[in-house]
Specification:
Blueprint: E1 2-5, H1 16-27, E2 36-41, E3 45-53, E4 63-64, E5 68-76, E6 79-85, E7 92-96, H2 97-100, E8 102-105, E9 112-116, E10 120-124, E11 128-134, E12 141-150
Antiparallel strand pairs: 1-10, 2-3, 3-12, 4-8, 5-10, 5-12, 6-9, 6-11, 7-8
Length: about 160
Amino acid sequence: MISGHISNPNPCTFPAAIEKALNFLRTTDFRALETGVVEIEGRDIYAQILDLTTKEKTENQPEVHRRYIDIQFLAWGDEIIGYAADRGNNPISQSLLEERDIIFYHDMEDESEIIMAPGTYAIFFPQDVHRPACINHTVSNIRKIVVKVKVDKLG
């Protein structure tokens, strides 16, 4: 997991696909877009624009993806995202890998948290379990952009 603020220069050189995704986040006015999907580079790199309401941690299941990385960006509101390394010990609640590239877990061990404020992003790789859209202090209406980058575009 890598996190940062979109206004800061990248801390290192990322693969071109991640650079392209971050550039999309830096240059797009998300107030002007409706919710839905925006293709950046076909289905290899695309963005999901979501309007959500944060929930209690216990109401959000941890998730992991295998074919795509997630770059989760917060346009407005605030949230907590739980995350941990996937060491194969989390009990599976539901596997939708074939249909949607997602596995939901009942819980995750050794969970840490990152507080997301407007302009922050977090990059989750296939080995990173994450639990997005959790309440920080109070329930918040958030606009979240999740850029999906196909793993095979990284190398």
